[in-house]
Amino acid sequence: MKIDRDRLERSILELGRIGETPRGGLTRLALSDDDRRGRDWMVARMREAGLRITVDQMGNIFGERPGTAPLPPVMMGSHVDSVPTGGKYDGQLGVLCGLETIRALNDGGIRTRHPVSLVIFTNEEGARFQPAMIASGVMAGKIALEDAYNARDKDGLRLVDELERIGYLGAEPCVPRPFRAYLELHIEQGPFLEEAKLSVGVVEGIVAIAWARLTVHGVQDHAGPTPMRIRHDALVAAAEVVTGVRSIARELGGDVVTTVGTLTVTPNIVNAIPGRVVLSIDLRDPRTETLARARQMLDAVVKEACAREGVTYELEHYWQVPYTPFDGQVVEAVERAARNAGARFRRIRSGAGHDAQYMAAIGPAGMIFVPSRGGRSHCEEEFTAIEDIEDGANTLLLAALDLAGRA
Ligand SMILES: [Zn+2]
Questions:
Q1: How far is the CA of 83 from the centre of ligand 1 (A)?
Q2: What is the 30 CA–ligand 1 centroid distance (Å)?
Q3: 321-346 burial, b if ≥16 CB within 10 A, otherwise e?
Q4: Cα–chain-centroid distance for residue 120?
Q5: Cα dist. 190→110, 193, 195, 242, 370 in Å?
Q6: How far is the CA of 82 from the centre of ligand 1 (A)?
Q7: Alpha carbon of 20 to those of 34, 38, 184, 320: distances in Å?
Q8: Dihedral through CA 307, CA 311, CA 314, CA 319, nearest 10?
């Protein structure tokens, strides 16, 4: 059993034209006109492949290939929305390799005991409506449908109105549904597979993530007449926190990654001492305990930096998810499939969140990674070689067939 590499490559090119940027990247924001065109293209291909299509209340698209027994499906899926000036591989590959798996099963006249289905999740990226992975979150019962519907983009448009406008406000309840397994193929978005010259990552789980928000209150004053000895500069304290957050990762070592991604300075003008700074902190590690240690270290870093500058602060640890392990049976099925597909593979963990994270909360889930050139993603330079995509798609096909069972 093998997928058709040329056909898969043509699909990648064709879908990649919808929302293509002049520099060969992709801008296809969730529920935009280009998202509608991308969805329509996928639905047409899914119908051609004989799938029965349904759309749920969050606009998630399901296409089912029947099995021979009344059993829950093996679901394959990902997303077709992108970040602005993103790439043609993030999300897209997961649905296209799923489509190619269905086509390969059709070509071979293969019947499976469990149905095999393809799902396209709405607004995975969170680039237009927050939070990210909003539709799989609703499906997993972690986000209320009402809250998701009322999410607004930067122009104040509501998610539910945009769903309706593009014709993808479906009737199927968006609630947990039984599945034999959920399989998501995705680009790695990191450098490890490429560095090791491997074509496939068998994903064991998704790292634990903690987010914090720090507000530093200094004393806003004139940049000229105020001598250095009486200053309480919020930005100076914040700058120490930025380098301190980096040093947490250096001290803990291992797989810990730490990032300050946003910094809002008030009043943010050239001749005033900053009175207020708000910054974000993102901490990640596979071990939930290490992450707890990183949070304690952050508390100390902030306390010392603010004491030195004589400023006050609020530190809010407002969101965290523990390590999400994938289902042992699914991970083993993916590993067997990678071996049988002749892929060069190793086990790996995901440093980024994916729809598979929410799916793992309601059933057996697993992921397949393919390499990202230079480890890069969410940019127009995002690229994965077709030889590696072929290994990944064959791994997906064999894992789906294994889990669905030949009739
Ligand atoms: Zn993605």
A1: 9
A2: 12
A3: bebbebbeebbebbbebbebbebebe
A4: 13
A5: 35, 8, 10, 23, 10
A6: 8
A7: 9, 11, 23, 34
A8: -70
Residue type at 247?
S
CA of 378 to the centre of ligand 1 (A): 9
Ligand 1 centroid distance, CA of 192 (Å): 17
**pLDDT block averages, 10 residues each, the chain of length 407:** 97 98 98 98 98 98 98 98 97 98 98 98 95 96 97 97 98 97 98 98 96 97 97 98 98 96 97 98 95 97 98 94 95 98 98 96 98 97 98 98 97
pLDDT at 321: 85
70 Cα: distance to centroid of ligand 1 (angstroms): 31
Can you tell me the distance from the alpha carbon of 108 to that of 116, in angstroms, rounded to the nearest whole number?
14
Distance 96 CA to ligand 1 centre (A): 13
How many angstroms does the Cα of residue 94 sit away from the middle of ligand 1?
8
What is the reported pLDDT for 320? 86
Residue 177 to residue 192: CA distance in whole angstroms: 34
